[in-house]
């Protein structure tokens, strides 16, 4: 029945709303996105994947460790070069302290050095044949052959015998013919030389009291009982003053 003063309300079937004075309800937007993403199951690494990862890591570590050997060798070479420079300074000082004639005996001719280098059985540690060879220690001490002392050995600056284990640097003083030829020695104010420093001359063994020359095989014979080609070498200059 129609009542006066009141409007009609219409109900629309099949619709989720009706015409009324009530405010429409707004759903929470967060609820709209809820449960839209599918459930994701937590997945662990398989044994095969773990083994593959370990293998890749091991290969990488081997590659990295392989870089250490060249670096170590490079550092050692730099250290030896610095020690060779110290030995060269010690040789100059030691030779200059000798009388001119005695110091001149340590200066070798170019032809003699070439002959030694070309001989497969050249043994620089044979002082009776090669007394002009000088040996040096890593700390810069120098050993000069003392034939006149009757013991046929190399002596350091303190007149103490230098054992083979300390003979790390092998030193030859080679005359500079272009500057001071041998024919002028009688009146020359100085004799110039090129100092050749090679190493290692000797290498220590398990027994601290002994040492062997690098590449040495004197007992086994062969064409090259002493392999001098495996030595490092540096050159320095110097002179013997009258």
Nutshell version of this structure?
This protein has helices at 29-32, 47-66, 68-96, 100-104, 110-118, and strands spanning 107-108, 134-136, 142-145, 154-155, 169-175, 190-199, 202-204, 211-213, 232-241.
Give a written overview of the molecule:
The protein has one domain. Helix content is 28%, strand content 18%. The protein has helices at 29-32, 47-66, 68-96, 100-104, 110-118; strands spanning 107-108, 134-136, 142-145, 154-155, 169-175, 190-199, 202-204, 211-213, 232-241. Strands 1, 2, 3, 4, 5, 6 and 9 form a seven-stranded mixed sheet that branches. Strands 7-8 form a two-stranded antiparallel sheet. A hairpin with a 5-residue loop joins β2 (134-136) and β3. The N and C termini lie far apart (147 Å).
Keywords:
alpha+beta, 7-stranded mixed β-sheet, two-stranded antiparallel ribbon, 9 strands
How many helices? The count is 5
- Major pleated sheet: 7 strands, mixed
Rg calculated over all Cα atoms: 44 Å
Cα(first) to Cα(last) distance is 147 Å
SSE inventory with pairings:
Layout: H1 29-32, H2 47-66, H3 68-96, H4 100-104, E1 107-108, H5 110-118, E2 134-136, E3 142-145, E4 154-155, E5 169-175, E6 190-199, E7 202-204, E8 211-213, E9 232-241
Parallel strand pairs: 1-5
Antiparallel strand pairs: 2-3, 2-5, 3-4, 5-6, 6-9, 7-8
């Amino acid at each position: 029945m129609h009542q006066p003063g009141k409007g009609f309300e219409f109900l629309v079937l099949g619709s989720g709303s009706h015409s009324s004075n009530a405010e429409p309800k707004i759903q929470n937007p967060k609820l709209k996105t809820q449960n839209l993403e599918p459930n994701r199951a937590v997945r662990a690494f398989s044994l095969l994947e773990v083994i593959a990862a370990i293998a890749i890591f091991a290969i990488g570590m081997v590659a990295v460790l392989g870089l250490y050997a060249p670096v170590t060798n490079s550092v050692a070479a730099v250290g030896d070069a610095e020690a060779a420079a110290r030995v060269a300074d010690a040789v100059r000082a030691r030779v200059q302290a000798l009388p001119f004639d005695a110091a001149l005996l340590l200066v070798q001719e170019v032809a003699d050095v070439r002959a030694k280098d070309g001989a497969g059985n050249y043994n620089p540690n044979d002082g009776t044949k090669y007394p002009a060879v000088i040996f040096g220690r890593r700390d810069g001490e120098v050993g000069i052959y003392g034939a006149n002392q009757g013991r046929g050995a190399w002596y350091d600056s303190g007149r103490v015998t230098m054992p083979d284990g300390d003979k790390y640097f092998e030193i030859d003083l080679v005359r500079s013919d272009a500057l001071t030829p041998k024919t002028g020695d009688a009146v020359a104010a100085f004799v110039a030389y090129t100092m050749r420093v090679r190493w290692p001359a000797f290498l220590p063994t398990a027994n601290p009291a002994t040492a062997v020359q690098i590449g040495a095989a004197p007992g086994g014979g062969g064409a090259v009982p002493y392999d001098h080609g495996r030595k490092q070498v540096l050159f320095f200059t110097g002179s013997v003053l009258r």
